[in-house]
Write a structure and sequence with these properties.
alpha+beta, 55% helix, Beta-Lactamase, two-stranded antiparallel sheet, six-stranded mixed β-sheet, Arc Repressor Mutant, subunit A, single chain
Length: 289
């Protein structure tokens, strides 16, 4: 997956997040590769973990597990890493396609310093790291209550919306993606098959899947479904077409299936979406009371 990144603007957002929270954050692409962190340096304890080959692999595994859960649920995830520290990951979405993740963490919900120190010492002993002086290493691990972590998580989520709205991180819509979007838009009401796409782009199935995976990091079926729902949202607001008609116009042959997919993707029913986005009409013939 190729991303376009406004490096300076992203760094500014992460700097501002750190200024307000004093918490380190990192940005990863859709393939779980780190793009940027602010500050760049880990906490002392996490730096120690990353400098050990075994514990570093477990750090990576903790991140990837959280990313996969975030991708599966398409929502923010609060989790505990292998070292017992609390972290939060939020998805970055470009037209409902997850293209990356923002993470903050290396904090603890254990308020008692002595208990926290003993917990980390026990963990390190399990890894055979008996000479570790936890007193020095945990000095920069912040304690936050679960309630505050929830609030910080919502702040992080707001940052993701800002980053995507401003186009600070976005999917690199290369020639293939531009043509794919155009093809889907032109055939939004039709059944689109892999065979159709292979003919359109003159590619074998294997090559098509490789290009799609490299460009989107999601399945073509998922991508088409998202495009159909986005078009349905537009029709709900801009036309008087019935829900049944809109289902047909966006390629859903079954009304109930359309309603089910719409609610899953948008979070509310199609009827509710239309109602929530109606523009009130003001009668200008009557004087204001």
């Amino acid at each position: 997956m190729k991303l376009t990144l406004e490096y300076d603007l992203l760094k500014k957002v992460m700097h501002n997040f750190y200024t307000v929270t004093n918490i380190r954050s990192s940005v990863y692409d859709g393939n779980y590769v780190k793009i940027m962190a602010y500050p760049e340096q880990h906490s002392k304890f996490c730096e120690f973990m990353h400098n050990n080959p075994t514990t570093r692999q477990n750090c990576i595994k903790s991140n990837v597990t959280a990313f996969k859960e975030c991708k599966k649920n398409e929502s923010l995830v609060i989790y505990t890493c292998h070292a017992g520290l609390t972290e939060v990951v939020a998805p970055l979405k470009d037209n409902h396609v997850i293209i990356g993740y923002i993470v903050f963490g290396q904090i603890t919900t254990i308020e008692d310093t002595a208990l926290h120190m003993q917990t980390l010492k026990t963990l390190c002993q399990q890894y055979g790291l008996y000479s570790l002086d936890c007193t020095e290493l945990i000095t920069d691990i912040q304690y936050h209550s679960e309630e505050k972590i929830q609030a910080l998580a919502q702040l992080l989520e707001a940052c993701t919306y800002y980053v995507m709205y401003k186009g600070i991180i976005r999917l690199n819509r290369n020639g293939f993606l531009t043509k794919l979007d155009h093809y889907i838009d032109q055939h939004i009401a039709d059944k689109i098959t892999i065979h159709d796409l292979c003919i359109e782009f003159m590619m074998s199935r294997t090559k098509l899947y490789d290009v799609i995976n490299d460009s989107l990091n999601t399945s073509i079926g998922r991508y088409i479904t998202v495009k159909r729902i986005e078009h349905a949202k537009k029709l709900l607001v801009e036309t008087d077409s019935t829900i049944t008609e809109i289902a047909e116009l966006t390629g859903f042959t079954e009304y109930n299936y359309f309603c089910s997919v719409f609610k899953k993707e948008v979070g509310i029913t199609a009827n509710q979406y239309r109602f929530d986005n109606l523009t009130p009409t003001i009668n200008t013939d009557r004087p204001m009371q």
